Automatic annotation (TrEMBL):
Cofactor: Zn(2+)
Organism expressing this protein natively: Domibacillus iocasae
EC number of this enzyme: 5.6.2.4
Cofactor, how bound (note): Binds 2 zinc ions per subunit.
PROSITE patterns the record matches: HELICASE_ATP_BIND_1 (PS51192), HELICASE_CTER (PS51194)
Subunit and partners: Component of the replication restart primosome.
Family: Belongs to the helicase family. PriA subfamily.
Gene that specifies this protein: priA
All residue ranges annotated as the Helicase ATP-binding domain in the record: 275-441
Parts forming coiled coils: none
Lineage of source species: Bacteria, Bacillati, Bacillota, Bacilli, Bacillales
Reaction(s) catalysed by this chain's protein: Couples ATP hydrolysis with the unwinding of duplex DNA by translocating in the 3'-5' direction; ATP + H2O = ADP + phosphate + H(+)
Binding of Zn(2+) 1, residues: 503, 506, 543, 546
Protein name: Replication restart protein PriA
Function as written in the Swiss-Prot or TrEMBL entry: Initiates the restart of stalled replication forks, which reloads the replicative helicase on sites other than the origin of replication. Recognizes and binds to abandoned replication forks and remodels them to uncover a helicase loading site. Promotes assembly of the primosome at these replication forks.
Length: 798
């Protein structure tokens, strides 16, 4: 008999192994590894993934597969083995590793139906609920409050519960019609049709000269009733045709041609093209200052890959998946490009995925999860802005796109390009050691200078009586740009410094009642909101502690900056880009377009404007508060500050007009601010490496973070203690186990959180030890309410 081993869609430790199912003879030729199937599991039907197919001589009693959900495998052999690797590396469930590779639309949707069996009579109340129908949805019964009644009936045998599984994704179809008659016959028919059937006559006339051609029903102008009548008369034929939802519908792209590379670009691209030609895996770190033409190198490398008939994946951070960035790929490669980003609807993402899967496109540009694009002949993988922490997924499977890219490149024998103006310390250290090959673009294209940077000490401003959020230096420069008709970008760093409320008399800051964090103030609704659990409450007008009225909004929101700017410079035309103004579909793009067409003088925004912008008339960049991120409890705080300041500064003076940057700060002496002003990556790297060495942090040590949470603080802390006691003897003396300590955010959603951090260099047993810890708590978890999570190479230490 033929047997399929299947991973079922039930993400708990007990089911984290393949289960065997019989393949019914009818499906023997159909079912293959990598397909989704529906299988019985306990009383239910669930989705599962076929891992392999076995042939056994002896027949044994197995439950049969109910039916396949795919006609062709959705995961190829390579992706199936990538799932093995991912499971082992990130200590996740196999099912999570398989699901993360597919678009959300392909996740299973479960529904329950209740059906009348006819074996026993129904009670009157249930009869009236069914109201003559054979079947109703579970939800309907639940809403009617009839579940306990139903349960009794199921026991009696009069009702039955059916579980069904569906894919969420719907293919979009259009109704097409075709005239079945020959041209001659059609002519005669139109003549002989009764005159009172005017609509039908008109409809048939439409096909004169177009018989035998499939035409969307919409275009024929006839109603469905008329169509139906004509189909019934066998004059027309109909079919449903599958369609893609096109997120870029109605946009045209002016094709562009490759630029002539500068000598420096040429030197950088050659080693890449060599590996493309040799089909050898190698990881390149392309370190190029802002505006040095990295993107052109990506484009021309991809060209070579396509010429060889291979495919390319380009990852960019979600935040820079702006039309400006994706257009550059569309302009060069036209319809060969699929774009995957979170702004697409579930259906649109599914359609893009299908285009990739059917090899109708050759290039994918997308955020983190695009690294799983189901290509089978990959010739190049590019990760732009490789230092971005959003490449690490912060939920299971906790993978880093860079590691996945390097794994896939190893499989296909192709190069990986990691590009950045400010590489992560980890990657640069690897390049120093020769694990990655370093390629450097030390200057901007065509000797354009990097912008000149002024650091302004805001404490000094205050001492001299300037209480505004703009230093005199920055203000003068903005005014100057307004007069000259040049453009300014103002950047407000909000990460880690969202606006909160504080009482100026007693220092009281409202905190979330469920989580130990201060709440964020939302100005437009005068509400306080917790970003961890979603709790919301009205913002107080007097201090709940001391009843002072001086309880105020602290921190500066973009809206407040805009108001102040308008007070000072009423003539300025400002575009504000933040979560409030870019919430609707296409808003991001519209705002940037307006700015590009010079309908505004100042672009004011948060993180989302730090990257990728390339406009010729931006000659001034102002950073309103450089140090807000420096004070986070995170060993990467300096690195993040340096990266962000360098990126934002890089938006100025990218074309012929020279650029200037003003950085406002309360800690001007800090090395990450000083060195960002000099745009001196190597010096920053040297200095930061010393700090990391002293602190025992990456890249000198690897990290693993264990977090334990429970509703009672004492449970969380004592279990965290037990874990530490159990782990320590298993590790080498070189490993350092810190904690347990209360997590920086010590409570989320009424669960107390404790953590311990393991620092290590080489611990071959660590993975197995941590897996044991997880297994142990998974078995007990349900009964004692403990939750334990493990994050290998964590980026969020809170
Ligand atoms: N060989 C070239 N000749 C002329 N112009 C070029 C060349 N290469 C790139 N450019 C132009 O230089 C500008 C900067 O290039 P690009 O955006 O590729 O830089 P980048 O290194 O990706 O920048 P960033 O990291 O700051 O986003 C662009 O306007 C681009 O069109
Ligand atoms: Zn107070
Ligand atoms: Zn909360």
């Amino acid at each position: 008999m033929k047997i399929a081993s299947v991973i079922v869609d039930v993400a708990v430790m007990q089911t984290d192994r393949p289960f065997d199912y019989e393949i019914p003879p009818a499906w023997e030729d159909v079912i293959q590894p990598g397909m989704r199937v529906i299988v019985p599991f306990g009383p239910r039907h669930v989705q599962g993934f076929v891992l392999e197919i076995k042939e056994e001589q002896e027949s044994r009693k197995l439950k049969p597969i109910v039916e396949p959900m795919d006609i062709v495998p959705v995961l190829n052999k390579e992706l199936l083995s990538l799932a093995d690797w991912l499971t082992a590396e990130s200590l996740c469930f196999k099912i999570s590793a398989l699901q993360v590779m597919l678009p959300a639309a392909m996740k299973a949707k479960y529904s329950k139906q209740i059906r009348v069996t006819g074996f026993a009579p129904l009670s009157l109340s249930v009869q009236s609920l069914f109201n003559g129908r054979d079947e109703i949805a579970w939800e309907e019964a639940a809403e009617a409050g009839a579940l306990s009644e139903i349960r009794k009936e199921v026991k009696k045998g009069s009702l039955d519960v059916l579980y069904s599984v569906k894919s969420k994704g719907r293919k979009k179809t259009v109704r097409m019609v075709k005239c079945r008659l020959s041209e001659k016959l059609l002519n005669e028919t139109v003549q002989s049709m009764p005159k009172n059937a005017l609509k039908q006559v008109e409809a048939m006339q439409f096909f004169l000269g177009r018989t035998g051609e499939w035409i969307p029903l919409k275009e024929t102008g006839m109603s469905s009733a008329v169509a139906k009548a004509l189909i019934d008369k066998e004059l027309l034929e109909e079919k449903q045709e599958e369609m893609y939802r096109d997120p870029l519908a109605g946009r045209t792209f002016t094709p562009d041609t490759p630029l002539v590379l500068t000598d420096m670009q040429q030197a950088a691209i050659e080693p890449i093209l060599e590996k493309v030609k040799e089909e050898k895996a190698e990881t390149f770190l392309l370190h190029g200052v802002t505006g040095s033409g990295k993107t052109e190198i990506y484009l021309q490398s991809i060209s070579e890959v396509l010429k060889k008939g291979q495919e390319a994946i380009v990852l960019v951070p979600e935040i820079s998946l702006t039309p400006q960035m994706t257009d550059r790929f569309k302009q060069r490669f036209g319809n060969d490009v699929a774009v995957l980003h979170s702004g697409l609807s579930t259906g649109e993402k599914y359609d893009e995925w299908r285009k990739i899967s059917r090899k109708e496109v050759k290039v994918v540009v997308g955020a983190r999860s695009a690294v799983f694009a189901p290509f089978e002949n990959i010739g190049l993988i590019i990760i732009d802005e490789e230092h971005e922490t959003s490449y690490k997924q912060e939920e299971n499977p906790r993978y880093h796109a860079r590691d996945v890219a390097i794994w896939r490149a190893g499989f296909y024998g192709c190069p990986v390009i990691l590009g950045s103006a400010t590489p992560s310390l980890e990657s640069f250290a690897r390049a120093q050691k020769g694990v990655y090959t370093l390629l450097t673009l030390a200057e901007r294209v065509n000797d354009r200078p990097l912008p000149a940077v002024d650091i302004v000490d805001m404490r000094e401003e205050l001492r001299e009586g300037n209480r505004s959020m703009f230093s005199r230096n920055l203000f003068d420069k903005i005014k100057d740009r307004l007069e000259k008709g040049e453009q300014t970008v103002l950047f407000l760093n909000k990460r880690g410094y969202s606006s909160f409320i504080m009482c100026r008399d007693c220092g009281y800051v409202p905190e979330c009642p469920n989580c130990d964090v201060s709440m964020t103030y939302h100005r437009h609704r005068h509400q306080l909101k917790c970003h961890y659990c979603g709790h919301e409450e009205p913002s107080p007008n007097v201090c709940p502690e001391c009843t002072s009225e001086h309880i105020r909004h602290f921190g500066t929101g973009t809206q407040k900056v805009e108001e102040e700017l308008l007070k000072l410079l009423p003539e300025a035309r400002i575009i504000r880009m933040d979560v409030d103004t870019t919430g609707t579909k296409g808003a991001h793009e519209r705002l940037l377009k307006k700015f590009a067409q010079k309908e505004a003088d100042i672009l004011l925004g948060t993180q989302m404007i730090a990257k990728g912008l390339d406009f010729p008339d931006i000659t001034l960049v102002g950073v309103l508060s450089a140090d807000t991120m420096l004070h986070l409890p995170d060993f990467r705080a300096s690195e993040k500050t340096f990266q962000l300041l360098t990126q934002v500064s890089g938006r100025a003076g990218r074309h012929t007009l020279p650029g200037e940057v003003v950085i406002q700060t309360y800690t001007p002496e800090h090395y990450s601010i000083q060195l960002a002003a000099d745009q001196h990556y190597e010096s920053f790297y040297e200095q930061e490496m010393q700090m990391r060495k002293m602190g025992g942090y990456p890249p000198f040590y690897y990290l693993a973070l264990i977090t334990v949470s429970h509703e009672e603080a004492i449970m969380a802390s004592s279990e965290a203690n037990k874990i530490v006691m159990n782990i320590k003897p298993e590790l080498s003396p070189a490993a350092v186990v810190l904690g347990p300590v209360a997590s920086p955010i010590s409570r989320i959603n009424n669960r107390y959180r404790w953590q311990c951090l393991i620092k290590y260099k080489r611990e071959p047993k660590l993975g197995a030890v941590l897996k044991q810890v997880l297994e142990h708590y998974a078995k007990q978890g349900k009964s004692n309410g403990l939750m334990v999570s493990v994050d290998i190479h964590p980026y969020v230490l809170m």
